[in-house]
Structures are given as C-alpha cells and as structure tokens.
Write a structure and sequence with these properties.
binds adenosine monophosphate; 6 helices; single chain; alpha/beta; 251 residues; Rossmann fold
C-alpha cells in the first residue's frame, strides 16, 4: 500500500507572527519556517504504518516555493521514502493545492492520503476535504486513531461528547488531529540519509493545473492587544467589581 502525505512549509509555531506594515499579509522575511505540525503527525502516522508492514511506500508532497524542499527533507528524515515538490511562486490557496494533490493522486495512485487537519498559517482546514471531493472518495477528518484492517481504514475521531469510529474503503483521505501520535525527532543519521533520498520536482503546468488565486486578501490586522489585568486583594472586592464594574453577575 502506497501512502501520500502532503506537507506544507509554514511559519514555525514558536515564532511570534508580525503583520506587514501595509496590512497586505504576514511578514515572512528572516522568519524561521518549519513543517506544519499536523503534517509532521501525518508523516509519523504513515511511517508507523510502513514500520508495521502495512504500507510499502510513503511519499511526501509539498506545493510551493523552492525552499519547500527543506520541508520535504524533514519528511524524508522522519522516514518517508521519496518526495515530490510541485514548485510555484504563486501564493497557493486550498482549492489550488487540492487540485495539485488530485493530479498527484492520479499519477501515483496511492491507497491512502494523510493530510494535516489544518495548516497553522492560514487555518483554512479545507484542503483534505476538497481533495476527497475531487477524488470522489471517503474522508475522515481530525483522526485521533488510524488503523488499516482488511483493506479498510478504521478511523477514530474526537467529536463533541465522545469518540466516533468510521470505516472507509480505500482509497481515502484522512486528516490528522493532535492526539494521533507524537512525531519522532529526526536523528542526525536520518537527516544525512534523507539528503540522498529521491526528490522529484514538477510544476503545476506539468500536472495541467491552473493555480491562479480565486480569492483576494483585502487586509490583515494584528489582534487588538489585551488590557492589563489587576490583582484584587480579596474575594469581596472581586465580587464587587464583577457586580458593579464589569456588570457580569447580578447583585
Ligand atoms: P489547509 O486546508 O490549508 O488548512 O491545510 C490542510 C492540510 O493540507 C495541511 O495540513 C497539509 O497536509 C495540506 N496542505 C495544505 N497546503 C499545502 C501545500 N502548499 N503543500 C502540501 N500540502 C498542503
């Protein structure tokens, strides 16, 4: 069984994001970039299926600028077998990525595609769902457990008030939630080995996909800063303030 894992290069989750002065977007200059954390979980899930003898090959795919190669190398260091970069300088929106991944699906014919549930930069949470629609196959989003049993994917999802378990025929799209696993650290020997693994570069035109944006970002603003809090001396003063100043409890 072949597994494809789409991985996105995003601002590292430890970085405090700055908005560009003209409000046109987020400032990416001199900012540490990393693999989207949910995609690391997806690569880990795929590699574990390979280690368990369920999967035969894990292919990581990234769509974006040439520097996304670093993100792919991280995936290879975690344990993926090979990588595909769909290179473009156009700012990709989820539908464009989903179309590129559908073209990769047609080319690679994997039985399973494991995406992250969302990219932490744009928080779109759309690509996996759109991809499943384009592939006309089943999808299980926000997976907290994933097994392959008798050629079917068994996926547990955390839903309000409990757990839901789904069975999907393959091929299918699964998107990962935080609790699916804890990704391993890439060791130095594996980082070295990853440099020698195959990395193929394609363009959207090679795949016959038009990736021109359909949406225009009008404005990006920083969240308003929180007012400083105060320390109250005792519960009585707190109750008094909640009642008479904040007016959130009845008198
Ligand atoms: P999003 O819909 O943008 O929140 O992204 C959801 C998931 O789609 C991510 O966690 C990735 O697995 C995949 N994805 C999104 N954008 C890209 C991209 N440019 N290249 C590869 N995978 C992507």
């Amino acid at each position: 069984m072949k597994i494809v894992v789409p991985v996105k290069r995003v601002i590292d989750y430890n970085v405090k994001v700055r908005v560009k002065a003209d409000g046109s977007g987020v400032d990416l200059s001199n900012v540490k970039m990393s693999m989207n954390p949910f995609d690391e979980i997806a690569v880990e899930a795929a590699v574990r299926l390979k280690e368990a003898g369920v999967a035969s090959e894990v292919v990581v795919v990234s769509c974006g600028i040439a520097a996304s190669q670093e993100t792919l190398r991280t995936g290879l260091a975690i344990g993926a077998d090979r990588a595909v970069l769909v290179e473009t300088n156009i700012d990709l929106q989820p539908l464009a990525v989903a179309k590129l991944l559908k073209a990769i699906y047609d080319k690679e014919k994997p039985q399973l595609i494991i995406c992250g549930k969302q990219a932490i930069d744009d928080d779109a949470n759309q690509t996996g769902q759109m991809l499943a629609a384009l592939m006309n196959c089943g999808q299980a989003t926000f997976a907290s457990k994933l097994e392959i049993v008798d050629g079917k994917a068994i996926v547990t999802r955390e839903v309000d008030g409990g757990l839901e378990t789904l069975e999907l025929p393959l091929p299918a799209v699964v998107t990962t939630d935080l609790r699916l696993n804890e990704p391993r650290y890439a060791t130095l020997p594996n980082i070295m080995k990853a440099k020698k693994k195959p990395l193929e570069t394609l363009t959207p035109a090679d795949l016959g996909v038009n990736v021109e944006p359909r949406l225009t970002t009008l404005k990006v603003v920083e969240p308003s800063s929180r007012k400083a809090g105060i320390i109250v001396p005792d519960v009585q003063v707190l109750l008094n303030k909640l009642k008479n100043e904040a007016k959130v409890i009845a008198g």
